[in-house]
Amino acid sequence: MRKLLFLYLFCASFILTSKAKTNNGPMILKTQEVDFKDKTGDEIKAKMLDLDVIGIQEVYVQDSVLMFVTSDPKAMLKIYDKKTLKPIAGLCQRGRANNEFAGQIVQFYKQQYRRNGDLIMPFTDLSTFIQKEVNISASLRKGHTVIENTCQRSSHNRDFVVLDNELDKTFTINGLEPDWLRSPDSMPLPVYAVAENNNIVKEIQVFKEHIKHESVLRLGTFYGGQLLKHPDRNLVVMTMRSMDYIMFFDLDNDRNFAIHQKGSPTYADIYIYDDWDKDYHGGTGGPMHIPGTDKFCVVCSSGKYTEQTLAEDGMGVELLVFDYEGNYIGGVKLNRNIQSYSYDPETKTIYAANVVTEEIFTFDLSDFL
């Protein structure tokens, strides 16, 4: 299999020679045409871990530990030693204390960061929509859940990521409320913005007008997607749920742009019908994303391999790797249907979980990355 560096140099040189201007219609971000769909390489076989985690919902790997968000009210965050697979701690208990959660914990988009050397993970309480920073390092030292800071979130907006490693500053997308909250006759354009203390301080115009549509209620499907944040910089990547675009928001440098799959429909081409079956169904915004490293991010894509394997036996995922300039580096196929995964740069391994069967796998990417 080709090494990452070779793929990067080849693909980057190709992209630099491709300067075709994209007709985005109502979308105004400068856009680069890139060829990334159905380009993944070899299929990587899964190795199942002998680890029994009941009620698993998310998987994380960081340094020497594996972490799992579960539905266990006594320990919604379970932590294991990465090498021995032995349990280390159970954190985030349900309850009414300040270091407990009233309901299930969740990260709408995976984030973890360092503060004074400690690993911090912000979790949102689905009952109260209070977001709490869990200091993982301090919790392991003290033997109980340690909370750093808290912030009240809106139950109507789940499209945000934390900036500057501070809860009171976010990149957020307003206007993508659930269908039942929208007016059947009108819908405002989505607002992509930087917010402080839940107040918008900087708005980024992405759309100048609505996509051509017959159905207002499904407009959000074509504006929404999945968010990833660079581990250190205020750089947010957004993959689109129903369109073959990936948007990049370099907030510190006021540089925003997009890439688009060459040859697929653009925002100028589509029309949203009342009949869902008539709509265009593309998209780079699969249900899973890896926060990535400081060099690249990884997204899940639904290409021909995924469609074929899901139809045959319910298995198969394609992962696409991009640098933060929008260059497509390469991709791989994973031979399992997984809903959550995390990348370990130390061992070049993906840890993944099928939350339905509660099976946990690893995929060795050392030949690829």
What does the model show?
With about 375 residues, the chain is mainly beta. It has one domain: TolB, C-terminal domain (Neuraminidase). It is about 10% helix and about 40% strand. It is built from four helices and 27 strands. Strands 1-20-19-18-17 form a five-stranded mixed beta sheet. A five-stranded mixed beta sheet has the order 2-24-23-22-21. Strands 8, 9, 10, 11 and 12 form a five-stranded antiparallel beta sheet that branches. The longest helix has 13 residues. The chain is globular and about 55 Å long. The N and C termini lie close together (about 10 Å). The N terminus is likely disordered.
List the helices and strands and how they pair.
Elements: H1 4-16, E1 30-34, E2 43-44, E3 47-48, E4 56-62, E5 65-70, E6 77-81, E7 87-91, E8 105-106, E9 113-115, E10 118-125, E11 130-135, H2 136-142, E12 147-152, E13 160-163, E14 166-174, E15 191-196, E16 199-204, H3 219-223, E17 225-229, E18 235-240, E19 245-250, E20 255-261, E21 289-290, E22 296-301, H4 304-313, E23 317-323, E24 328-334, E25 340-344, E26 349-354, E27 359-364
Parallel strand pairs: 1-20, 2-24
Antiparallel strand pairs: 3-27, 4-5, 5-6, 6-7, 8-10, 9-10, 10-11, 11-12, 13-14, 14-15, 15-16, 17-18, 18-19, 19-20, 21-22, 22-23, 23-24, 25-26, 26-27
Name of the level-1 CATH class = Mainly Beta
Can you tell me the CATH superfamily? TolB, C-terminal domain
The CATH architecture is: 6 Propeller
Largest sheet: 5 strands, mixed
Kindly report the spatial arrangement of strands forming the biggest sheet. 1-20-19-18-17
Q: From the alpha-carbon coordinates, what is the Rg to the nearest angstrom?
A: 20 Å
